[in-house]
Amino acid sequence: MLTFFFRHRNVQCGTLQCKDGERQPVNDGIDQLYSRTIISIKGQEYECKATSGQVGSNNYPEHGLVKDGTPCGDNLICLNQTCVSLFPHVDQTKCPTNKQGQECSEHGVCTNTNRCFCDMGWGGTDCSSVVLLTTALPTEALPTPENTIKMEKKETPYGKRRA
């Protein structure tokens, strides 16, 4: 039963199974290696597309196979068409901490490359250093003759008859 589970999990790491997409392959050189079939299941039509065969140049990447590193489950990735644990393939180290053991000194966020992305006003590898902001704050504009609002009395001739 366990063997079946692992084989079933590997299904997601084999040949690509696509939905929607273009009418023909988008890669040059494989338009002659392409087939399209319409099937009907319980009155619903489905279009199946496939490419096959060898592509002329040796530098053309494998087509139709899931790429290494594609997720195939929680903490699982495809590697050589097999669904395997992610953990042996990623750096298990943590981000830098301060003397109190706080990751990124609680003044930043740990990135996927185990580096601290510091909050504004903090710096250093562990975000423990205060950084003075050199950006000048905007000042309030002083009134000038051009931007001064002038209040003027306006008279509207209501009720006055024209002669």
UniProtKB/TrEMBL annotation:
Pfam families: EGF_2
Disulfide bonds: 118-127
Ranges that cross the membrane: none
InterPro entries in alphabetical order: ADAM_Cys-rich (IPR006586), EGF (IPR000742), EGF_extracell (IPR013111)
SMART domains in the record: ACR
PROSITE patterns for this protein: EGF_1 (PS00022), EGF_2 (PS01186), EGF_3 (PS50026)
Protein name: EGF-like domain-containing protein
Species assigned in the record: Drosophila pseudoobscura pseudoobscura
